[in-house]
Amino acid sequence: MALMTTPHPSQNHLLAALPAAEFEPLLAHLERVELAVGDTLYQPGGQLRHAYFPTSAIVSLHYVTASGASAESAGVGNEGVVGISLFMGGDTTSSSAVVQTAGQAYRMASATLQQEFKRAGLFQRLLLRYTQALMTQMAQTTVCTRHHSVEQQLCRWLLLTLDRLPSNQLVMTQELIAHMLGVRREGITEAAGRLQSAGVISYRRGHIAVQDRAGLETRACECYAVVRSELERLLCDVRYRQDGNEAPTDAASSK
């Protein structure tokens, strides 16, 4: 997809997949919002008033224990939507949604989303397919946390984050990454150190640059490929608008 410098809802892949006849009526119901790192979009048990379609922001979905400990179950970027509970039968959720990477998103009021979903058109099918892909990501995160090393988990997380960004640069502290993965900071420091020594990444003052993506993929476990493949499989037949025209393309690999 062509690189856009002016903010627009079609920078979100789900919205961009809609033909003009279905997309244009939604524009009046989409509000652009700036999201800062640490912003909480919803908390466990709280009522969801909006769905968010990220364009440049990345949102982390967390499950929080009674003691206050938490770990990321999935991330949502320009490939998806935050707030699937709104069209899956509930107005609340047991997880929290916290902004991981600052940027922009477009939000839609819950009543509007539910109304559009009930039309049973392409928008509904896209949302349901994306939900299945998100469920795969959540399940694979559970498996990865239980069976794979911290270094493998870090590689998976970095790759999924890179897929949602326009460059190989991440602004992220090791402490925040440890919080996302639910591991000790020392484990992330050691894993990141090995990746830096191997020339896969460079790290300084909360900035991570991926120098060798192929090397990162080699060191990652199979979980990244499973999540990526499922997203591509479920959304491979969507169509994106480019320069005002309809053009078929791959839903997951396009940026």
UniProtKB/TrEMBL annotation:
Residues 148-214 form the HTH crp-type domain. Pfam families: cNMP_binding, HTH_Crp_2. This is cAMP-binding protein-catabolite gene activator and regulatory subunit of cAMP-dependent protein kinase. One of its GO terms (molecular function) is DNA binding. Keywords: DNA-binding, Transcription, Transcription regulation. GO terms for cellular component: cytosol. SMART domains: cNMP, HTH_CRP. It comes from Serpentinimonas raichei.
